[in-house]
Amino acid sequence: MRKAHSSTGMAIAFASIAAAQSLDDLCTVEYVQASLPAANYLLGVVPNVDSVVASTVTNASVTAGEGQIGGSGFDFCNVTFSYTHTGLDDTINVWYYLPSPDQFQNRYVTIGGGGWAITSTNTDGSGLPIGLPHGAVSGTTDGGFGSWSAQVTDVLLAGNGTMNDTMLLSFAYRSLHEATVLGKELTSNYYNNSDFYAYYAGCSEGGREGWSQAQHYGDDFDGLSIGAPAMRQAFQQPVHIWGALVDTVLGYAPSSCELDAINTNLTNACDGLDGVVDGVIARSDLCRLNWNANQSIGAPYSCAASTGGGYGGGSGAPGGGAPSGTVTSRQIGGGGGSGTSTPAINGTVSAQAAALVNRLLDGVVDDEGRQAWIWFQPGAGFSDSVGTYNSTTGEYEPPSIAGSYEADWVNYFLNEVDSEDLDISNWTYNNLRDVFLQGMRKFSDSMQTTWPDLEVLHDNGAKVIHWHGEADPSVPTESSVWYQNSVRQIMYPDLSYEESFDQLNDWYRLFLVPGAGHCSPSATNGTFPDDILGNLIEWVEGGVNPTLLNATVGGGPLEGTRQDICSFPTRPQWYSNSSLPICVYPDQDAIDIWFPALTSIPVPVY
Ligand SMILES: *[C@@H]1O[C@H](CO)[C@@H](O)[C@H](O)[C@H]1NC(C)=O
Ligand SMILES: *[C@@H]1O[C@H](CO)[C@@H](O)[C@H](O)[C@H]1NC(C)=O
Ligand SMILES: *[C@@H]1O[C@H](CO)[C@@H](O)[C@H](O)[C@H]1NC(C)=O
Ligand SMILES: *[C@@H]1O[C@H](CO)[C@@H](O)[C@H](O)[C@H]1NC(C)=O
Ligand SMILES: *[C@@H]1O[C@H](CO)[C@@H](O)[C@H](O)[C@H]1NC(C)=O
Ligand SMILES: *[C@@H]1O[C@H](CO)[C@@H](O)[C@H](O)[C@H]1NC(C)=O
Ligand SMILES: *[C@@H]1O[C@H](CO)[C@@H](O)[C@H](O)[C@H]1NC(C)=O
Ligand SMILES: *[C@@H]1O[C@H](CO)[C@@H](O)[C@H](O)[C@H]1NC(C)=O
Ligand SMILES: *[C@@H]1O[C@H](CO)[C@@H](O)[C@H](O)[C@H]1NC(C)=O
Ligand SMILES: *[C@@H]1O[C@H](CO)[C@@H](O)[C@H](O)[C@H]1NC(C)=O
Ligand SMILES: *[C@@H]1O[C@H](CO)[C@@H](O)[C@H](O)[C@H]1NC(C)=O
Ligand SMILES: *[C@H]1O[C@@H](CO)[C@H](O)[C@@H](O)[C@@H]1NC(C)=O
Ligand SMILES: [Ca+2]
């Protein structure tokens, strides 16, 4: 098995490690300075030796999260330093946790960010500590944004009309690669050990960052754990406009109460299609084939007055409480369907609301009805469409887009204006399609992150575990299915569907997590991955190909029961005599439902 790194070595570092093996001995500014990569180890990158800060941390705890394990009793060296690029007077900060020598297990991992942040520095399983339970050095970067908590939108524009292209590319893919190359060389020098494996782990924007590395720098890693990637940004952010736009174009903004009633009907109708009635829609593909919102017309609803807090999302659909650093619509600022007071409401599901939900689930179309993109799975709720109550008129209005990630995309990235406003009240469906196309033209080599040829990564022997909650309301689940299919078709053009999946599954697997939300569990009785990086390590280092992803039920009567996750395209199906699902190949129509022809987009969408 290939190892990740070959060291150029550093005499000073090696001189001191022989006598110094404890954490206290290694975790000094002098020793870390001596372990720094040399100037131009990565051409054009010059570490600032004087910037090194190193401090010992002992008995640290890590909280599990995002499908990664936690633990306690971790001792490590907490290191930061900065570097500059030749010819630029810039400062990029990088941050590493280096386990004590007795806890180091010959692994390195780069950690991604979330939302518009290039890094997550939390103590839970979404930040730098991810590596500690696996004895891995963890590394991350501030991208040169000026602070660890800065968002790319803070630095993307030098002024209205002037994009800071350096910051764009830093965020898009470059700075994480630099943090990785520097981190691997630091690891090699610090432990006097070039014989270790290199990994990547991230979810949401961190997932997109993982694909950005896999696509641009296929040599960097032996394995990548990529969750719910916010990739294909030309579509990913604006797809959240679809909910409000359909309200606007159809002239009907439903209350959360009415949408909840539709979602309840959907859940009741689709829950059992997977063979077990447990409140989890494990077959959203069958739901799309078997249910449409017309079935819910006439269903009664009644909700008490609310003083704010917004949309609860109904069963199986998370509302506002997304974890920090995710790409949920309308989490920035005060716009949209949260925080407003609504009066008591009752009624029966209208034909208008049903037409609207059918339009949402069928995905984005243009004014001629031609398909432009997909949408979220049934079970993910309809939060983007929830009307805002106007106490002056007593009517529900389409939700405001202002202050959302999608407004940021249109303003900062596409139009290059520093603004949180976006008024879509005059838009038609073509405006949204045109936003997709504008983003594709402008960011195909940066934020789009869908390059489908992973030959370098594959030749390098690297493995990828790509996972996605099937009820994710922030990044459409189908977005992941779509990308995997693109890779399969580009890399195995001459093989049949099953033959090409056989080849692909040797090194890249996709797991859809039934009922799960965005990088987190959602449905009460749903299962969730135990230890994704652990499965990846077993695959890379032990040759154990994860035909199933280890996972455990998080609540309800089966809480704590192992319920592993099927590798796409196989899908879970329960039979009367089994308590665990069987992974089956779906019927052709349950495959085809994922792949509509995008007749409104004149170029391939990967
Ligand atoms: C570094 O590691 C190599 C190979 O393991 C070993 O030969 C060498 O003595 C080590 N050097 C120091 C200074 O520990
Ligand atoms: C280490 O932390 C744990 C809590 O995680 C605590 O119970 C224990 O006393 C600590 N040990 C030491 C030596 O501080
Ligand atoms: C690690 O060091 C940074 C500054 O270099 C500091 O802000 C942070 O709190 C430290 N983390 C821990 C866990 O001590
Ligand atoms: C780009 O952003 C960085 C970080 O904020 C800044 O140092 C640099 O001067 C900016 N470049 C331009 C051309 O504005
Ligand atoms: C969880 O499953 C149990 C029995 O299998 C069921 O009674 C309960 O209603 C389910 N919970 C939800 C939220 O559907
Ligand atoms: C729902 O009902 C409307 C009005 O009767 C009809 O036009 C539409 O085709 C139906 N939708 C589906 C998916 O059956
Ligand atoms: C429904 O709302 C109306 C007012 O809009 C109210 O008079 C009526 O009592 C409500 N019915 C129920 C069952 O809540
Ligand atoms: C409510 O409706 C009134 C009348 O159309 C309008 O002037 C006002 O801006 C609306 N309020 C909000 C918060 O949209
Ligand atoms: C930049 O453009 C936005 C949108 O037009 C405007 O609101 C803002 O005031 C402008 N900022 C500056 C500094 O001119
Ligand atoms: C929408 O169109 C109307 C009529 O053409 C125009 O008066 C209004 O300014 C437009 N609103 C926006 C936000 O463009
Ligand atoms: C996954 O489960 C298998 C079988 O129970 C076990 O051998 C393996 O170690 C587990 N892997 C992880 C990462 O938990
Ligand atoms: C919606 O769900 C379907 C399938 O479970 C039922 O047959 C319908 O009766 C239900 N619709 C309403 C209005 O309750
Ligand atoms: Ca079910």
UniProtKB/TrEMBL annotation:
Going by the UniProt record, its keywords in alphabetical order are:
Calcium, Disulfide bond, Hydrolase, Metal-binding, Serine esterase, Signal
What are its E.C. numbers?
Answer: 3.1.1.-
Q: Which residues form the signal peptide?
A: 1-20
Any Pfam family matching the protein: Tannase
What enzyme class is recorded for this protein?
hydrolase
Q: Where does the record place the region Disordered? A: 316-343
InterPro entries to which the protein is assigned, alphabetical:
AB_hydrolase_fold, Tannase/feruloyl_esterase
Under PANTHER family, the record lists: CARBOXYLIC ESTER HYDROLASE, FERULOYL ESTERASE B-RELATED
The UniProt entry's sequence similarity note says: Belongs to the tannase family.
- Name the domain of life: Eukaryota
UniProt GO MF annotations: feruloyl esterase activity; metal ion binding
The identity of this protein, by name, is Carboxylic ester hydrolase
The UniProt record lists the keyword Calcium: yes
Species of the source:
Coniella lustricola
